[in-house]
């Protein structure tokens, strides 16, 4: 640790464990971590084993960036194990589900 190096204005850190939990659907929870004045935001999505989004997840107004932190994520077409990065362009959609349970880091650069 370098005591002479201080966090700059606007620098934000959030513990996932301390982030509020919002239940989106049965077995699917979102923890918001950060939001910019522009609407860009980041968070963690937790999905229990055998849970699924009940309808198409459409990426609007912009893209969705996904990093699979743990477990295996399925987008309705194929499985993606932990360590996978996904870019879903604006206007695209998928049907999120998991048989194993998964934790995803999500970033929405356009809000």
Automatic annotation (TrEMBL):
Top-rank taxon, per record: Bacteria
Domain ChrR-like cupin: 13-107
Gene source species: Embleya hyalina
SUPFAM superfamilies to which the protein is assigned, alphabetical: RmlC-like cupins
Protein name: Anti-sigma factor
